[in-house]
């Protein structure tokens, strides 16, 4: 994926390169350097910006000699050494743009340890739901309610993750295994915690075991806080281009999308508030897991009156802390209309500190000596996990109601799932959180259990949730079959279209070999039919069209997941038994199905967690795996952290300001001209950077996009920010825009602007492959390029030249049609 400003130089994908030179140019001022080189206004800039896949400046500039103009090791702008002073020599670049390369692969690439970010996948997915709200007008309260519900759903995911860590460390390990003689003897490293093995040692008391084990989920919470703070400092602390007040007002009046607002790419205040609240929620969850278990024992018969009173006081403080956390999450959303430089320092600093104090008090209370206390059964994990599941289901349903109301106020048939994409994705985030938490608990329980029947294992609800995975997989397999059938139908429909497009005719020979090119034969003459070739092209087109079926697939999976989750919650609450035991005494088929679902689900939920981890690590080592899951990861980490502070960092909060600063300062300094050209995800960065420019600068910009998901993915799934009105406004505000795509491209597609504007932006689909058979220009079989190598098509150079011809050296060209 590649973003370029003005050019047709071929960009090849590769690994992240190193900086070629440390030579830097003095930065320009905030509003440009008043000194302008003589003749610089006749210069055009060509800024190449690679996509998330990464490449080197040498490959981007097609020159082994490059020099760093500005930037650091994380992201920098490069030029060829010969072009370093191009503004001082405009006569050498008359009629051709000056190429630059913006290299930012270190924002998203790195060593294999970054695969651990995939463990934050549920947080990233729920953050996506925040940006998927439908387009609405004059319903600001509804928009705020939508954001509030998503933030609350994100908070439940943090509590769920920490609760899963508590389940593993406190319940399964410290309470059940250490309290069971057989399990403690099988795992000798737990011997000092077992009263039978250690002989009633100091750590063998249940409360002290729980206090010691609480350090594990507490450390996990601290790690999440540290990673969120560190990634924000490294990625998202860069301030956008500072604009004057009149420029901000002008931008607010002309831009019809939030991406053009001054504070959109600087969510420092909200992220800091949410980070404090989620960190406090994690510590309070650990305190509740340890302290409430001791308080429940103290409330029993024979419990000390003083400890019972302390238990009630501790529970009251925990409830108060939870109320404060929820209030902080609900109190404030994103502020985008201005660049918010303030921080709620008192809240950000003291809310986590207060939760840590409560955690220490809870551990001291739980560790108090209670000679008669023995660990039996399970800790009350069903109550916690059941409450989380109930709240998540309720939030998803309310979110669907709000989203439907927003969609009805301004319906758009191209919007994914009729506006319900956000609730569906939020449901998937909750399901992913359940799979990861349940998978860890199941695998640890199987490892600790061995052959001891007295080991009860994880809570009943987690077993029920695992048991519904097999029927969910049956639904997924049915959807795969439907997609396969749909692909076959589309392929048959494309066979005739392919032969008509290439002018295929019956083969003149009967030898089964392609005839040789006749002397004087032109490349435009009809090709001879090759059944295999025709089917391959048709199949590629049909598979590329499956992207448009994604909303239906996601919608069905989300709906089935919600229904099965409700069934699991009801089953665990009513029976208080695992599915296999609950089915005892029923029909043999029902009992067999319940036992099979329980056993298979337990294995699948653990396997799913391991698969997520291994897939993430392989994605950073294997290029093909990276391309397979890359598009979803690119979309997820493009958006700022608005709903969950522990989500993976947003690379666009560094990349978009970098691009905006470079374009604005260069234009103000030189008065030169710009053509922004973006491939795939780069076209999204191009649009975001163009929206951040002031109207006066944006009018000097021409836009060329190819393989672009602007409408096909972003316009349908994020209509409030990339919908028809936003893309139409972008077309009006830039000098001109041309979009190129192929029918074999599974990601890129037409922009589909309404009316005549659509024909002005979207070119006719590029032919892919370039030739059906062997020709003079293509003596070897031409490959099917799909999403890559748009520059290899001669039509790309023609479209680029037409775009360059429309902008003059000093002022934008006429806005006439083609």
From TrEMBL:
Residues 22-41, 503-535 are annotated as: Disordered. The keyword Thylakoid does not apply. The chain crosses the membrane at residues 145-165, 210-227, 276-297, 309-330, 350-368, 388-407, 419-441, 461-483, 553-574, 600-620. InterPro entries: AB_hydrolase_fold. It comes from the Bacteria. Keywords: Membrane, Transmembrane, Transmembrane helix. This is Lipase family protein. It comes from Streptomyces phyllanthi.
């Amino acid at each position: 994926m590649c973003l370029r400003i003005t050019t047709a130089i071929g960009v090849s994908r590769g690994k992240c390169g190193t900086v070629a030179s440390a030579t830097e140019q003095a930065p320009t001022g905030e509003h440009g350097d008043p000194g302008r080189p003589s003749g610089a206004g006749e210069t055009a800039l060509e800024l190449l910006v690679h996509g998330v896949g990464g490449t080197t400046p040498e490959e981007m500039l097609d020159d082994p000699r490059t020099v760093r103009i500005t930037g650091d090791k994380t992201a920098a702008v490069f030029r060829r050494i010969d072009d370093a002073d191009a503004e001082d020599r405009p006569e050498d670049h008359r009629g051709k743009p000056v190429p630059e390369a913006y290299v930012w692969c270190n924002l998203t690439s790195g060593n294999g340890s970054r695969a651990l970010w995939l463990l934050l996948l549920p947080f990233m997915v729920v953050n996506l739901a925040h940006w998927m709200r439908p387009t609405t007008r004059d319903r600001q309260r509804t928009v705020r309610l939508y954001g509030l519900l998503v933030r609350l759903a994100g908070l439940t995911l943090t509590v769920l993750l920490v609760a899963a860590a508590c389940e593993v460390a406190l319940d399964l390990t410290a309470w059940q295994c250490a309290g069971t003689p057989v399990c403690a003897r099988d795992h000798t490293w737990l011997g000092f915690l077992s009263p039978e093995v250690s002989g009633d040692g100091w750590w063998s008391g249940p409360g002290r075991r729980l206090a010691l084990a609480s350090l594990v989920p507490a450390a996990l919470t601290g790690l999440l806080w540290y990673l969120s703070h560190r990634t924000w400092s490294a990625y998202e602390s860069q301030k956008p281009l500072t604009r004057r007040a009149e420029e901000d007002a002008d931008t607010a009046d002309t831009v019809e999308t939030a991406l053009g607002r001054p504070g959109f790419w600087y969510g420092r205040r909200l992220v800091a508030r949410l980070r404090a609240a989620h960190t406090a929620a994690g510590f309070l969850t650990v305190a509740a897991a340890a302290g409430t278990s001791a308080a429940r024992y103290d409330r029993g018969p024979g419990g000390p009156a003083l400890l019972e009173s302390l238990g009630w006081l501790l529970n009251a403080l925990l409830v108060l802390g939870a109320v404060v956390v929820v209030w902080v999450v609900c109190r404030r959303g994103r502020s985008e209309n201005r660049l918010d430089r303030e921080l709620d320092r008192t809240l950000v600093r003291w809310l986590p500190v207060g939760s840590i104090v409560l955690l220490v008090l809870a551990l001291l209370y739980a560790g108090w000596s209670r000679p008669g206390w023995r660990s039996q059964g399970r800790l009350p994990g069903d109550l916690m996990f059941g409450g989380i599941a109930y709240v998540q289901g309720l939030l998803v349903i309310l979110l669907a109601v709000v989203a439907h109301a927003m969609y009805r106020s301004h319906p758009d048939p191209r919007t994914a799932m009729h506006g319900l994409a956000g609730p569906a994705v939020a449901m998937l985030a909750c399901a992913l959180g359940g799979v990861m938490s349940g998978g860890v608990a199941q695998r640890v329980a199987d490892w600790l259990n061995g052959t001891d029947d007295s080991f009860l294992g994880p809570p009943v609800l987690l077993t029920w949730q695992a048991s519904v995975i097999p029927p969910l997989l049956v639904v997924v397999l049915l959807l795969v079959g439907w997609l396969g059938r749909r692909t076959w139908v589309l392929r048959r429909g494309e066979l005739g279209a392919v032969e008509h497009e290439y002018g295929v005719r019956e083969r003149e020979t009967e030898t089964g070999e392609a005839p040789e090119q006749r002397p004087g034969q032109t490349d435009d003459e009809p090709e001879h039919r090759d059944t295999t070739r025709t089917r391959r092209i048709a199949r590629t087109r049909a598979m590329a069209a499956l992207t448009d079926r994604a909303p239906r697939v996601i919608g069905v999976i989300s709906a089935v997941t919600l229904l099965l989750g409700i069934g699991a919650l009801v089953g665990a609450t009513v029976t208080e038994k695992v599915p296999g035991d609950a089915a005892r005494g029923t029909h043999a088929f029902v009992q067999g199905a319940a036992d099979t679902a329980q056993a298979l689900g337990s294995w699948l939920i653990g396997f799913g967690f391991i698969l997520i981890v291994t897939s993430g690590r392989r994605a950073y080592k294997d290029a093909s795996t990276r391309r397979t899951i890359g598009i979803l990861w690119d979309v997820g980490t493009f958006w700022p952290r608005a709903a969950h502070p522990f989500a993976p960092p947003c690379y666009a909060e560094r990349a978009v300001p970098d691009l905006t600063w470079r374009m604005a300062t260069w234009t103000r300094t030189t008065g030169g001209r710009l053509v922004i050209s973006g491939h795939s995800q780069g076209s999204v960065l191009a649009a975001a950077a163009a929206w951040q420019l002031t109207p006066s600068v944006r009018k000097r910009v021409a836009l060329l996009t190819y393989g672009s998901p602007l409408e096909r993915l972003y316009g349908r799934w994020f209509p409030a920010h990339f919908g028809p009105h936003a893309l139409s406004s972008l077309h009006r505000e830039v000098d001109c825009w041309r979009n190129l795509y192929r029918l074999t491209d599974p990601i890129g597609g037409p922009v589909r602007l309404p009316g005549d504007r659509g024909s002005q932006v979207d070119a006719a689909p590029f032919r892919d492959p370039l030739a059906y058979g062997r020709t003079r220009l293509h003596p070897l079989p031409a490959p099917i390029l799909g999403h890559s190598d748009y520059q290899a098509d001669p039509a790309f150079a023609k479209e680029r030249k037409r775009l360059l011809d429309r902008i003059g050296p000093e002022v934008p060209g006429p806005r006439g049609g083609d």
